[in-house]
Amino acid sequence: MKIKPQKSVDLSAQIAQAIRDAIISGKLIVDERLPSEAELSDQFQVSRPTVREALKRLAAQSLIRTQRGASGGAFVNRISFEDAYSQQVTTSTLLLSMNAVSFDTACEARFALERACAPLSAQRRSADQLATMRAEIFRQAQPDLTDEAFCASDVSFHRSLVDGAGNPVLSYQLAGAVEAMQPLMNMITFSARSREEIIALHSQIADALEAHDAHKVDVALVELEKYTRKLAQDVAQQHRKPA
């Protein structure tokens, strides 16, 4: 592994990228021990603190793990989809907030992705996933449930639908859509929405999944998207009205 130092890029970032590329290409395999800090320092011709910072970057991405003791050191990690979920959600949340993505754009993307999952979920959803969705519908109907708790329940409901597809790649890819976009949409529309309307649509989705009816799942998701977009329009109109 080599780097070509660029003044505009932090050296530790360049080293982290070089090691990351070696892991992705298979030059460094899962559970392989990385060279020591001293060896990496000599290899990259940088100070040990710079190497240490590069290793911290890789550990933060779950690409390596460190072990203490005589047989310790830094090792290539086997990253799981579950470990990567939080990074996907964080990245999606930052992209949405920093790039001022419009409500309609986020709504369109989120429902298009979720509808793509619906046919698989109708075929493969487990009894436990269906039970989770039913439990969330029951929770949403409680009169003393706070707006924040309702939003969290909403996310859990839709996450179960996505996970019902039984495809970890889809679940990972949609983590950002559900857990980053859904809270954004909830935050904008919670003051205007009818919980009863949402619960009714959630019930239609759960009933269709229980019956393995992909078409009815899709129809309910289309209706939920229309309702969500209408809520956002109503909220925007209220904000435009003169005080």
Commentary on this structure:
It contains 10 helices and 2 strands. The chain is mainly alpha-helical and 243 residues long. It has 2 domains: 11-76, Orthogonal Bundle (Arc Repressor Mutant, subunit A), CATH 1.10.10; 81-240, GntR ligand-binding domain-like (Four Helix Bundle (Hemerythrin (Met), subunit A), Up-down Bundle), CATH 1.20.120.530. A two-stranded antiparallel sheet has the order 1-2. Strand 1 and strand 2 (73-76) form a beta hairpin. Helix 2 (37-44) packs across helix 3 (48-60) and helix 5 (103-124) crosses helix 7. The mean pLDDT is 86.
Summarize the structure.
The protein has 10 helices and 2 strands, in the order H-H-H-E-E-H-H-H-H-H-H-H. The chain has 243 residues and is mostly helical.
Report strand %: under 5%
Low-confidence stretches: none
- Return the structural class: mainly alpha
CATH class of the largest domain: Mainly Alpha
Order of helices and strands: HHHEEHHHHHHH
Topology:
Layout: H1 11-25, H2 37-44, H3 48-60, E1 64-67, E2 73-76, H4 81-98, H5 103-124, H6 127-140, H7 147-163, H8 168-189, H9 195-210, H10 214-240
Antiparallel strand pairs: 1-2
Write out key terms for the chains shown.
two-stranded antiparallel ribbon, 2 domains, mainly alpha, 243 residues, Four Helix Bundle (Hemerythrin (Met), subunit A), Arc Repressor Mutant, subunit A
